[in-house]
Amino acid sequence: MVSSAVVVHAVQGRTRFRLASRKGDHAYFTAAVEQLKTLPGLHVLEANPLTGSIMLQHDAEVTADDIGHFAEQNGLFSIDLEGEKGLPVTLRASHQLQDFDTKLQGASLGELDFRSVVFLLLVSMAAVQLWNGRIMAPAVSLLWYAVSLLLDSEKNPPQ
Q: For position 49, what pLDDT does the model report?
C-alpha cells in the first residue's frame, strides 16, 4: 500500500512532505531517500523519520506535483489533497501560486514569473493614477506595502 503524503511547504526550489502514517519508520525513510535520490534536478534531500517528513531542495522548475508523481510512480507515496485541507489557507494558496509561477515561467521561456506580472500590473496602475493626477497612495496601501516588505525580507521559510 502506498503511503499518503501532505505538502506542508512548497516554495520555488524547496518542498517538504509530511507522511504521518510513516512517522518513526526508519526503514521506510531510508528506502525513500535512496529512491528519491534518483529524482532529476534534486540538490539536497533530508528525511526525518521522527517527524515523518521529507524535505527536498531542487531545481526551480521542479514542482511539488512533479515530485509527487515521481514518488507515486516509484511506489513511495501519493499526495493527499484532502490532507491539505487541514493546512492554513495561505499555505494552500502558496502551493497553488508556486505551481502557477512555474507554469508561467515555462510558458514564457523564463521571461515572466508571477512577481514580474504583478510588478508590471502595479506599474501600469500607477501610470493610470498619475495620468489622472493622483500622485499619492492611500494610507492603507502604504501600510500594506511596508508590512509586505517586512514579511518578504524574512529569510527563513516556515517549516
A: 94
- Strands, E assignment, 31-125: 42-48, 53-58, 77-79
Q: What is the pLDDT of residue 81?
A: 62
9: DSSP letter: E
Parallel, antiparallel or unpaired: strands 3-11 and 42-48? unpaired
Residue type, 74: N
Residue pair 29/49 in contact by the 8 Å Cβ criterion: yes
Q: If you count them, how many residues does the chain have?
A: 159
Q: Which of 114, 12, 7, 9 is nearest to 62 (CA)?
A: 12
Question: pTM of the entire structure?
Answer: 0.55
Q: 40 — alpha (psi -120 to 50), left (phi > 0) or beta?
A: beta
DSSP per-residue codes, 17-81: EE-GGGTT-HHHHHHHHHHHTTSTTEEEEEEETTTTEEEEEE-TT--HHHHHHHHHHTTSEEE-T
The low-confidence residues of the chain, meaning pLDDT below 50, are 155-159
Q: Measured at the alpha carbon of residue 114, what is the angle toward residues 87 and 14, in degrees to the nearest 5? A: 50
Identity at 113, one-letter amino acid code:
D
* CA quadruple 148, 154, 85, 65: dihedral sign: positive
Contact 4, 78 (CB under 8 A): yes
